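Issue: copy button drops trailing tokens. Both records pasted manually instead:
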Amino acid sequence: MLPLLTEQFHLMPAINSKLHVLLVQFIYLTLRQLEIGTQQTSLTSTLRRLGKEICRGSPESPEEQANIAKQKSAIFFKSPNLRIRFLSMLIVLKTISQADYLAQAFYTLHKDLKSDEGKALFLEYQALPVVLNHLRTSSKGLLSAALDIRLQMSMETRMRHFPNVSLLLQNPKLEVLLLEKISIILQKLTTIKENKKLFELLTMHLIIQEMHRTADPDHTFLS
């Protein structure tokens, strides 16, 4: 279905937010469904094309905005409609590997999560796993951006993904600033009683004790 859905971007009327919401919502839920099966690895080119179509047709200048109705591709990546824009960011994070697109998606997501409506959409579409998938990235900028999102939502979402953070803590090359962000996230999450068993099951307290023993005493905040 995804190749057919990708073609819909060229058939969509440029100004019809109701249709746009339905399309990006259906695409996002389809991508979520693919995670359950084994098909996703064979769809790399289709997913990449899908992400690029989401990013196409984003008007930058007033002249481009005035001609929006003439564009074949609908406006999604920079839509004024929060739900369309939010879902578009999640689709980009799930389909594209280019750092510039991912950085823009994280920036926009971070900004939209400052509103209560943005936080509600994050919970409604269960966006936490999408963000946590980028904790494996080798890009320091993207890793920091993903942690910023996790920090923003640390009290709104229950931590079902402690293993991601546990692996990060054991990375000896992680910068102090990123470790500080992780420590703030963990501090907030450990105020939720339901997290205690999982925290202990993953022996995170032992990992943190060892980190504290070996940490540079000059890193006062982290200590």
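Record 2 (pasted manually too):
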Amino acid sequence: MENLSNISSVLVLNRLNLSSENVFPAFIFATLSYMIILFCNLVLILTIVLNKSLHQPMYLILLNLPINDLIGSSAFFLQIISDIVTNRKTMKYSACVAQAFFIHIYATGAVLMLTAMAYDRYIAICWPLKYNTIMIYANIMRIITVVWMSCLVLIGVLFFLLLRLPRCRSELTNPYCDNPSLLSLVCANTTINNIYGLLIVTISQVVSIGTILYTYLQILVACFRSKRSDTRAKALQTCATHLTVFLLLECLGLFTIISYRIKNISPHLRRFMGVSTLIFPPTLNPIIYGLRTKEIREKVVHFFQKRIIPS
């Protein structure tokens, strides 16, 4: 029982294994990556918050995407940077669970938020006359609240099911903590956990992919019916931006999920794809939306011209 208690409270890290000459480059890479993510997402957040002209339904929903990205990237990078600097070989189980919880919140939240953004664009393009009636401030807050509460409830139950199980292993080889890596430490039947995990993935994918397929088909029909070429071009540009972000997240995320259930797949490839899910979307999302969304791009350029290069 004493040994089991020790195993339960402390994990042995066997995931970095950096040689002395690789520690500094790894530290620089991880720190710069996190600084870029932090800078880009904070710029997007501040641009929307500080400009009243951007306090519109589309941007209020978009505001939650960089917040969510910062949750996921911070949970990953702060732990990795700490491990590199301290050359730590152990980690508290509670800290691992906390990291895994926020990473799963990030993954689920990103999918649901992009779905909410697709719904907003659908109403704006297909029902423009009813947009201001449907997408009022109260309804926007309801949508945002439903997204966040859905994440908290779904992931909260996932980790409740995990924490009830006894553990008899302590070695962690994954680059970050997540539900599958924590389940690998369990010495009990995990059937319920696996079924519930697949249920979460199925529900989120059916809701998100189903909603986006329907809304985008309707948007395409509305665009081709429109006689105004400028309106059609703007709508298609907005949809292309959103679809690029969504497909990037889906490809990385689904591959990582499926790879845990394929025994013959390279563990190095699985780790690379998993880490990419935590690096590329949080880095590219603010850049894509900042460059492709005219209103945001103009506000960001104006801010830097005014603050950095004053006339």
